[in-house]
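# nightly structure sweep
# worker-07 picked up a monomer target from the shared queue
# config: single-sequence mode, recycle default, output format = C-alpha cells
# input follows
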Amino acid sequence: MTPEGSTATLSHADGAFLRDGRPHRILAGSLHYFRVHPEQWADRLGRLAALGLNTVDTYVPWNFHERRPGEVRFDGWRDLDRFARLAQREGLDVVVRPGPYICAEWDNGGLPAWVTGIPGMRLRTCHGPFLDAVGRWFDELIPRLADLQAGRGGPVVAVQIENEYGSYGDDHAYVRWVRDALVERGISELLFTADGPTALMQDGGALPGVPAAATLGSKPGEAAALLRARRPGDPFFVAEFWNGWFDHWGEKHHVRSPASAAESMGRILDEGGSVSLYMAHGGTNFGLWSGANHDGDKLQPTVTSYDSDAPIAEHGAPTPKFFALRERLAALDPAVADRPVPAAPPLLAPRSLEVTRRAALLDSLRATAEPVRSPVPLSFEELGQASGLVLYAAEPRLPAGRQELTVLGLHDRAQVFVDGVAVAVLDRETASFPVHGTGAPVRLELLVENQGRINYGPLLGQGKGILGGVLVERRRVHNWTMRRLPLDEWSPADLARAASASGPDGRTGFATARLAVDEPADTFVALPGFGKGFLWVNGTLLGRYWEIGPQRTLYLPGPLLHPGENTLTVLELERFGDHIRLEDRPELGPPEEYVETFD
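# output follows
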C-alpha cells in the first residue's frame, strides 16, 4: 500500500522485483548502525559492497533513540540520516525495519522499558495506550525516513511493516495500523512483511496486498513453495537468511560453516529469490543493550558480542565465509570478483596491563546513589530505571536458628549479603537460600542485575528487579531502601566518582588499568581470573564479561582510544584477576555448528 498516484522505486510483477521497471534482485546484508562505532560506519559499509551486495538493511531500535519519554535523539551514534547517506555514497540501497518491535537480540526487542512497564500495557496489539505511544514515536521517526526515500533523492527503497509478527500474535488490525501509520507519515516506497517460513507464522503476520517475505536459515526450496502457493504474485524474498547465529552466556559459540552458508544462499538465488544476509556484519552489543531469550525453563541472556559468525567479523575483517559467499554472488555478477577486498583493520600489539584495585563493591555502590525508600521492594520500572543494577537493603529480624529466605519474582540475578558478608547468588530458578539467625536484626542486601530484557516470544516486556517481595519463611520483609545504579547511563564523571567512593577491599568492586598508545587501533580485551562484571574504556561502557563464557574477550574499537594514556575501568562483582590482557584476535568460545531448521 502506497499513497495513491505515487511511484515506488521497487515494485513487483509476475513474482519478481522490478527496480524502476527493470528486473532486480535485492542482495542485501544486515548491518546495524547501533552496533558499530559511528567512525567505523563507512568502513563496514564499504566491506558490505565488496562482498557483492547492493543493499544494506537495518533495524531502528526505539529504546536506543528514546531512552526516556519525549527525549528523542538522532545525533552521534543515533544519526540514522548520516548512516543512510554513507550507504548511498557506497552505492548501496537501504532497507529500513522500523518496528516498533525489532527483536534483533536487542534489549526488550527495541521497545522502551518505560512503555512496556506501564501497568496494563498490551504490547503489539491495538491496545489504545500502546498505539498512542507508537504513534508519538513514529511522528518523530517516520518523516525522517520519508526524507531518505529514493523518490526524494535518498537511498531508502523499502520499509518493513513491524517484524516477524506472526511469531507473536494474530492481531491483523494492529499490523494494518502499523502499515497505515507508515503511509500516513510519508512512506511511499515498497512496503513488505517478514515472517518465519511456516503457515502459522505467515498466517499471523502477512497482509493482503503487501509482499510477504520469509526469515529462515535452511530449506529455502520449501519456503519458496509455501510462499508461492499462498502468494503467487509475490517475489520470493528471504528478508533474513541466518548464515550464522548469536550466543547466550553459558552456552557454546554458534557457528555455521562457510560451505553450509554458501550452499543455502545459493539455493535461495537458484529459486530466483532475493536475499538479505543476517548478519552481514554483526557488530557488538555495547553497553547493556544485549537482549535475552527464555526457553520455557530459564532465562538465556545474550553475550556482549554480536559477531554472529558473520562474513564480516566483529572487528571488520573478512572471514572465510566472506569469500565463500562472495564467490557465489560473483556467479550472478562477474564484476563482483573485480572489486578490491579491504584488508583487515590494524590491531594493537598484545600486552598485559597492571590492575589497580580501587573502591570496594558494597561501600562504593552505597556511596554512589541516593537511597529510595519504600515499604516494599520496587521494580526497575517503578524506579524509572531500564538496565544495570539495583542495590536493595532491609533490616529484618531473624529468629534464632536456620531460616529460609525467598525472593519472589527475581529478575534476573541477585548477590545476597548479610551484614556485609556474601552468602548466596540467586537467579530466577534458584531464589531461596538458608541463613542462620540469632534473634537480632541483620542488614540484608541484594545486588540485583538486569541481565537483558527478553526480546522474543510471549514473555516480551517482563519487568526487572524484585517483582514479588522477599520472605523470611512465610513472613514478608518490609521497609526497604533501594539505590539506582544505571551503569550504562553513567557519565565519565559518575564512573570516576564511583571508582573512588571508598577504599579497596581487595576482592570485588572497582579497579582500573592504564593503556598507553601512540596510534589508536582496535584490540580485544581479556580479563583472566576475573569472575563477572562490566568494563569501561575512557568512560564508555563496552559491556559485560562473565567467566562462564563462551565469550572470553571484549572487542574494543580503536575510535574509543586516543593517543597517550587511556583508562580501563572494571566493576567486578565476584573476584578480581591480577591483570588485563590485550589480544590480537577474538576468543568467542568453543564452536558449535548451528543451523535453524524450524523443526
